[in-house]
Amino acid sequence: MGRAIERRCRPFGLKTIHKNRNPLSAVEAEAPEYVPFDELLSKSDFISASEPLNAKTKHLVGTVEIAKMKPSVVIINTARGAVKDEAAKTDALEEGHITTVGLDVFEGEPKINVKLLKQELAFMVSHIGTHTVETLAKM
User: Fold this and answer.
1) Which residues are designated catalytic?
2) Predicted model pTM
3) Other beta carbons less than 10 A from residue 49's beta carbon
4) How much is the pLDDT for 100?
5) Residue pair 110/81 in contact by the 8 Å Cβ criterion
6) How many angstroms separate the CA atoms of 121 and 76, rounded?
7) C-alpha distance from residue 30 to each of 9, 24, 131 (Å)
């Protein structure tokens, strides 16, 4: 998933860095730089989650991690809602510590945090990533 995101960023001239459970070879990663998690948090303008949800990734990004981010950061979550602490993300958005969130997954699905729904800069859609002509044809 991360490599697919990187390929889509490339035409826009975006420099991508990544944090993976294990560093990928340059060939596997198609050249993005591997960085430690704290460095990724502090350097990134956009942070996109594509991790599976498990005991190690639940609330991987919470209040402590958000405090390390640039105030201009855009957080995108298309993985699983609980990978990023939704309450912490909502509070940071309200307080202006993060600029925008783009979500198609929510921690309490199918319910969505009411405070999050009220945020003007929270862009939300239902989890429909596989609903493309190409993907549906392959299913």
Assistant:
1) 80, 109, 127
2) 0.79
3) 21
4) 92
5) no
6) 12
7) 12, 9, 26
DSSP secondary structure, 12-46, as one string: GT---EE--SSPPPHHHHTSPEE--HHHHHHH-SE
Domain 45-138: top CATH class: alpha beta
The tokens describing 12, both together, are 């826009």
Partners of 47 in the β-ladder: 75
Mean pLDDT for each consecutive 10-residue tract of the chain (139 residues)? 77 78 61 80 88 86 93 88 87 92 86 89 79 78
3-state secondary structure 71-123: CCCEEEECCCHHHECHHHHHHHHHHCCCCEEEECCCCCCCCCCHHHHCCCCEE
What's the CA gap between 84 and 123, in Å, rounded? 15
Are the C-beta atoms of 89 and 69 separated by less than 8 Å?
A: no
Residue-range domain boundaries for the chain: 1-35, 45-138
